[in-house]
Amino acid sequence: MADYQYDEAGNMALYFIITFLASPPHPPHRFSSTVSLPRKRTRVQLPRNKMLYAIIGWIALAYLCRKVAGAQSDNALYNPFEILGISTGLSEKEIKSHFRGLSKLYHPDKVRANANETIEMIQDRFIILIKAYKALTDPVIRKNWQDHDHPDGPQPIRTGIALPAWIVADHNNIYVLGAYATLMGGVLPTLVSHWWFGSSRQKTSDGIQADVLRILALAYPFEAIHSVKESTDAVEAEVCDAVGPTVWAGIAGEKAWQRRAMILLYAYLLRLDVGTGLAKEQSTLVLQTPLLLNGLLRISQARNWLTPTLAIMRLHPFFAQALPPAPAPIQHLAQLPGIKLSEFSVGDTNYAAFARTLEARLDERAGDVRKALCRWGHVEVVDVLFRVIGEQIITPSSIVYLVVKLRLVPPDAEPVKPQETEMDGEDARQLAHAAEERETAFLNSRKDTEDLRPGQVVSGDVHAPFWPGTRSKPHWWVVLADDKSNRVVVPPLKVTDVPFRRTGDWSDFRTYKVQFQAPQNAGLFTWRVYIVSDSYVGEEYVRDVTVSCPMFIHCVLRYFFLVGRCRLTRYPYLASDAQGDEDEITDSEADIGVESNTEDEEESTVSDSESDSD
Fold first, then answer.
1. What gap in Å lies between CA 67 and CA 63, rounded to an integer?
2. 24 and 125 share one domain
3. Domain match, 441 and 585 both
4. C-alpha distance across the termini of the chain, in Å
5. Domain with 592 in it
6. Residue 79: CA atoms inside 13 Å, Cβ hemisphere, count?
7. 433 and 544 both lie in a single domain
8. J domain: from which residue to which, for each copy (predicted)?
């Protein structure tokens, strides 16, 4: 029978509190696989109030751990040797002799009560000694102790509740109920309402303010408080010299705050030193650019604009790598660690050759460049397919899946040839059947991304040495678009965790899918697939794809054609019987057979032409 007891000593309650205090005071840390640049970086410090909370949490955690470490446990195993103060190797005769000595010292008739010990305490101590003595000398009691760890036999199970006993005391009920009512009826609804009516409801999933018009209307009547800020005139002069007076006049802006923001942004993109006074303001401004670009991307996606959508996507890596966008020429090699803009020719994209050049010069930066290239994210498209579950063709208005098979290849990696193995027809069919089953299982699943297989390695954090914060793992947008109408056919899919190429065989990739509805009209549609990186400049892939939506009659003819071909493949004896019947044709029937064969050939030609047009 279980015996529920409250925590009188408070030890279990301390374990409960330590569990919650162990994680919040410990902030997460990240590190880069590449060494730091010689350029000094401004460290992002925790706010003062958060640091104060962390210090208080660590102090409380250390105090509670020290208190728990010194607490005595009430659940110690019964040990008669320890109670009698003897070793475990003594014989029964020696135990009896030792107990007689203890009896002379602790027998109630030999000890007198005093201020420190009452007669009840003396009697209880002697009873404990007698019980320990019998546990070692009496066979029945000794067996109980050996089988049940106690001389009295099985003991009731005691289940402790990690709450102090004073919480359930009768005279404290009103205080406990009052605290519970305050917490559940006051504090919890306040927190939920603050979350619901606060920032969570006013912002989108990307952190963009949902009610921008209301915010602008509320901010309009108030005048900005002119605080003393460091001047940006010197930085503006450097930016103007770098981009040119004409270009700068068109992008600087009319308002003072617009001009200041553009100065700091272009100073970051041009990798200009703004000084310690403006570094924090610049970092805060740069860290907001992904949120603003995501907001613009949502606006462009809602209207299916292709050119603005691609332009916004291509801006992300420029801010990640601190490189100036168009009309300035793209400087791809400046993304490598420690490489300045003046060390290479504009338009050079041969990363491997540049790394070999540094190694030939015995440049100390060559090792860092090689490390960065090993973790680079050059996406390689294995295949782009259109699939309809359970169908061989795409009919108008059907649900179609755009299937993209991707893997990463470092820029300095050598081409990997697939392993050439000799296999017979049966092995090839089994391999194709396994690939088809894998693709079908993925299409029938609810996931947009195929699970990683054992051994596949994905890219870590983005190599972005100039980004003021920590960039997470790289992402790519998969966009299906119609260039002729300048429209986005399918909303972009953002993918990540693309595995690196290992062997280059048929299974060395990861599959992603996008669902959309086929056009309502029959015809041949020429589209284009864009794969754009959000972390590395120039890492973009484009492929032209064709989707054929035949008319209904064409679908029926192709269906019967495929069924007939499958029957001949599955039942080859039908073809052999037909061939035997043709051999038995008489001369008089030969002319009819020629005409029949001619008609069959014409029908086959029509069917093949229709299938080609499909």
1. 6
2. no
3. no
4. 77
5. 553-613
6. 10
7. yes
8. 79-149
